[in-house]
Write a structure and sequence with these properties.
Largest interface: A-B, 41 and 41 residues
Shape of chain A: globular
Oligomer: homodimer
Distance between the termini of chain A: 32 Å
Strand order of the largest sheet of chain A: 1-10-3-6
Number of strands of chain A: 13
Radius of gyration of chain A: 19 Å
Structural class of chain A: alpha+beta
DNA sequence: GCGGCACATTGATGTGGCTCAACGTCGCGC
DNA sequence: GCGCGACGTTGAGCCACATCAATGTGCCGC
């Protein structure tokens, strides 16, 4: 794990934004070094233990966040408890889509998460004063929108096998340079994967087994997937 | 149909943006009246006949558009032809999500469409010079993202019946003030609806029939749905 | 008015993924 | 090291929706 340097707890201000490990990935990259102090003055930090709720859909949105470490699941619920995970976030990602002063989705920590927090009102002022931040946010939401559309295609039109392969390959792309073989780490549970792909845990499990029996993947443990031949997997997933 | 005033064909510049019917709904609302001439100088217009492709996914994105009349379907395709419609657009909506200089989806006219066109490079300059435009675009993409997440919930976790009811109610909300009863117009085909909801045309048709037999809706023709009792429909769809 | 075509509906049958249930497996507290 | 609970896998049967096929229905050109 890539250890961050900002471990101060909630309320701690004036952190060293200029030393932030994930600065270049986050919204903050758009803040000029000259404005760094200003940024540092309005951010605080929060540590969230694994499994804990960060906020729920519909909560009044006072704060927005950047993730400095760990992974987060975003989800929407139906009244009867059915859940759709709309995305997984990782370090550098922006957290806190707001419509009508409320969060548009719930968010939970998958593993131990460190957040960089900012009052929404402060962000709005920052955005107003530093135009590149707005550009950066616009770019990020453009990418997110493209990903959302891709996910709609997956949910509406792909088979279980295609869904799982697409998911694994997306994870692979996000991860490393891909040589002949590669391993991806899946911090989330089978239930999370199922709720992300619009399947049940049983189907996810069975599909993992089927892919293993085909020799496309290896499963050292429930949270790791090894690809002995990345190209073969991409070919198998060609119809995606 | 709300007749627009800008009927000039492609290439016509210096249109009267200040007289545009849908100005207040579109991105252009963020352009001050003082800058109207500047806006008018960079837009042109295009008429698209019903059914025609506006652009395809992956096309190099030179232009972006505002829809001044008509309705548009956005879609993504799998290599074998399976299609997912990711959204329907109407007058006032912004058209042309771009990633890596290419359109992120295909777009086709459902009925006769009038577009207000702008070179991407001109939009970028406009955005740079007129900050409120950026805000407006950010707001619009925030809303679109929230809608996309809602659609993921629908695609991944709702039944056919719930999908169709959600779809109809969303259409109703977009349309008018809703008194006791109401009618929504569906310009798109059953195939379009199916590809939007992740179903087949047969299932869409059967579900329409089932709702009609329950007395929740009436179907004067294939492109209109009447709700004799809006509240009853909302109650029936409560589990959404 | 009538043939032809696109689109929608309806029916019969098939099946992918869900449901229900049992059984592993791992990690943790005591 | 042992019991327990959370999580994952596997199996058997079922069902919501897909597929395949036939039959309306409305519209347009002639």
């Amino acid at each position: 794990m890539n250890e961050g340097r900002n471990h101060k707890v909630s309320g701690a201000s004036h952190s060293r934004c200029d030393q932030c490990d994930i600065r270049h990935k986050a919204m903050c990259a758009a803040v000029d070094t000259a404005d760094n102090d200003r940024l540092a003055a309005i951010v605080s930090h929060r540590d969230i233990p694994a499994g804990q709720v960060i906020f729920e859909e519909g909560d009044t949105a006072d704060y927005v966040y950047n993730i400095s470490a760990g992974e987060v699941r975003l989800y929407k619920l139906l009244p009867d408890g059915r859940r759709q995970i709309t995305g997984f976030l990782r370090e550098g990602d922006f957290l806190g889509l707001v419509t009508d002063d409320a969060y548009a989705y719930g968010a939970e920590a998958i593993n131990k998460v460190e957040l960089c927090c900012m009052r929404l009102s402060n962000l709005e002022r920052l955005v107003a004063d530093i135009p590149p931040v707005r550009d950066r946010l616009l770019d990020m939401s453009r990418d997110e929108l493209a990903a959302a559309q891709e996910q709609m295609l997956l949910l509406g039109r792909k088979t279980a096998r295609e869904k799982l392969l697409s998911f694994l390959l997306t994870r692979l792309d996000h991860a490393e340079d891909h040589p002949e073989e590669a391993t991806v780490h899946l911090p989330m549970s089978r239930t999370d994967i199922a709720d992300y792909l619009g399947l049940t845990i049983e189907t996810v499990s069975r599909t993992f087994t089927a892919l293993r029996e085909e020799g496309l993947i290896e499963l050292p443990d429930a949270h790791a997937v090894h690809f002995p031949d990345v190209k073969a997997v991409r070919d198998a997933a060609a119809a995606m």
